[in-house]
């Protein structure tokens, strides 16, 4: 017995997952949702437990010199918990697996671990387990995030006619990465945005209650992550270049294609979110809620500038990608 | 508010965990058990979900040349599921985070991932998520194992007067590691025992029903893991050298101190397990159940040979250790 492979967006990185999982046995009835969304869902009481893993590897996802050991731990937990937010789940617990280089001594592991604990508790969760090693010559952190949710926001439930919305402003984290890679020093607010991405936990629950139909967190960039919603929902998405809410001093191209923002991309039936909704959202959370496009019949993601479709490359990030 | 740090056994590797977690907020009521046992436990229906993570790093936990990519994946899943067995939990699902070296191409990741899926399904579980990257120059696999259990076997519930039992025979996996490290070629059955450790899932549930009071899986070696039961239960353990069930051609010293066996160490009230019990266990599972010692008042682990206490070093393994 085989199952339908998870409907992930385009990218060679997802081919591995698709190829291997097409031979997998379908999960039993206790698993409400397996691979292919931000979290897996396990039936639990009147709702679900949401479960996700997020791997952070030195040299691929971050460079140590860009921050401190505490920030490395904090960021790893924040981006794992962002997957819970994308399902509108409430964080419950984290488990942390951490490898530090043999040569670094135990002080490095302790400082990273303290950062993990601080971020876990700041998100209202508890640290409930983990595994430490000091083998490979790179820092590797894998965070398992566990949350609970009654009515999860999925990637697969956007419908043609939905409007697309983005929380916050995009591109500052990617601008920081670009500055570091060019040997420069990013502006402080870019650097902070990279190291301390804000899991939009309360924002997501507010948007779910307000009638959102689907969501994903923006880890690979607005373009690439839009592709995941389009593939999972079996629809097309159209994004308006002029509407993309770039952070101050950030070019729209970076806001559109750069990753690491961990804001939310949300679909909602047209006319559900009014001017009142966006005003109340901004008043409540201190960040904007911006309409960036629409869901249509078809497939894939198209970008329009001054009403004309344009080529918009989606480089995504140079890791294999995020399975769920 | 702080909580009692998890009662882990001796070892510098556990000092980090103890130091950091003494400042942690106690988990909420939904978390029945946090760090310090083989799994964390989340209240779930009439029982619990058991959750554990297990990190395998190339160069620390295995060397690629010792096996195949498929075996690397299989072993990582089997040892993660062994933590479920140690709680007498039934495997439900796995999530797999995998890093492969950038230079290796996607074929390596796919082969390891196929091994992970095969072992997951062989254990009756479903693969429900993961994360792939290709940053660090080492293979890193972190497996999150999820199971369910109604009456979990803990590390902390052994009592003075309990007898100590071990499933199977010990030392073959450590003998394989020793042979590889010496540049030799291990016997086939040693090699198989390293790469395909058998999670004792059904054995643990059988022993729990038969009246076992506590359990741990033997990852760090009988001596080191006995220390964890002793610390968690607030008691001492005594082990009889002559009783240790070494695998054929394996010295008792290796059976006692070598790790990677993934057999179970189980405590049970004295006289609960009779000769009939051990005969039925061996008939059912094809492996022996051997009485190796007893729990006493006090603390720590002592080894007796010909009735005399002996010095028995517990080198454990050269990673930081397993937090839960």
Radius of gyration of chain A: 19 Å
The coarse overall form of chain A would be: globular
The multimeric state of the shown protein is: homodimer
CATH superfamily of the largest domain in chain A: PurM-like C-terminal domain
Distance between the termini of chain A: 22 Å
Number of strands of chain A: 14
- Strand order, biggest sheet of chain A? 8-10-7-11-9-12-13
For the largest interface, the chains and their residue counts are: A-B, 73 and 74 residues
What percent strand of chain A? 25-35%
Number of helices of chain A: 9
| Contiguous runs where pLDDT drops below 50 for at least 5 residues of chain A | 315-324
Counting structural domains of chain A, the number is 2
Mean pLDDT of chain A: 92
H and E string of chain A: HEEEHEHEEEHHHEHEHEHEEEE
CATH architecture of the largest domain in chain A: Alpha-Beta Complex
Judged by helices, strands and strand pairing, the structural class of chain A is: alpha+beta
> How much helix is in the residues of chain A?
25-40%
Assigned CATH class of the largest domain in chain A? Alpha Beta
Instruction: Describe the sheet with the most strands of chain A.
Output: 7 strands, mixed
Keywords (chains A, B): ATP-binding, Kinase, Magnesium, Metal-binding, Nucleotide-binding, Thiamine biosynthesis, Transferase
Pathway (chains A, B): Cofactor biosynthesis; thiamine diphosphate biosynthesis; thiamine diphosphate from thiamine phosphate: step 1/1
Protein name (chains A, B): Thiamine-monophosphate kinase
EC number (chains A, B): 2.7.4.16
């Amino acid at each position: 017995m085989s199952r339908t492979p998870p409907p992930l967006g385009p990218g060679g990185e997802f081919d591995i997952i698709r190829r291997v999982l097409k031979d997998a046995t379908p999960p039993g009835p206790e698993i409400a949702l397996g691979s292919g969304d931000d979290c897996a869902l396990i039936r639990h009481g009147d709702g679900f437990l949401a479960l996700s893993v997020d791997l952070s590897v030195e040299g691929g996802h971050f460079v140590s010199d860009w921050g401190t050991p505490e920030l490395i731990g904090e960021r790893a937990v924040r981006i794992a918990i962002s997957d819970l937010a994308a399902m509108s789940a409430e964080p419950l617990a984290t488990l942390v697996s951490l490898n530090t280089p043999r040569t670094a001594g135990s002080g490095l592991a302790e400082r990273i671990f303290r950062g993990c604990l601080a971020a876990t508790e700041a998100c209202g969760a508890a640290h409930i387990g983990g595994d430490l090693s000091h083998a490979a010559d790179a820092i590797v952190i894998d965070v398992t995030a566990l949350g609970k949710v009654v009515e999860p926001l999925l990637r697969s439930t956007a419908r043609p006619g939905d409007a697309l919305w983005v929380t916050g402003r995009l591109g500052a984290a990617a601008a920081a990465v670009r500055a570091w890679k060019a040997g420069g020093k990013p502006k402080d607010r870019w650097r902070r945005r990279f190291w301390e991405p804000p899991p939009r936990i309360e924002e997501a629950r507010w948007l779910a209650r307000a009638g959102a139909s689907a969501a994903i967190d923006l880890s690979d960039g607005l373009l690439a992550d839009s592709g995941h919603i389009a593939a999972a929902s079996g629809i097309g998405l159209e994004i308006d270049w002029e509407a993309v809410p770039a952070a101050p001093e950030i070019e729209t191209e970076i806001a559109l294609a750069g990753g690491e923002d961990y804001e939310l991309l949300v679909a909602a039936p047209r006319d559900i979110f009014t001017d009142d909704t966006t005003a109340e959202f901004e008043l409540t959370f201190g960040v904007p809620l911006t309409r960036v496009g629409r869901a249509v019949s078809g497939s894939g993601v198209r970008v329009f500038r001054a009403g004309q479709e344009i080529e918009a490359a989606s480089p995504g990030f140079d890791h294999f990608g995020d399975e769920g």
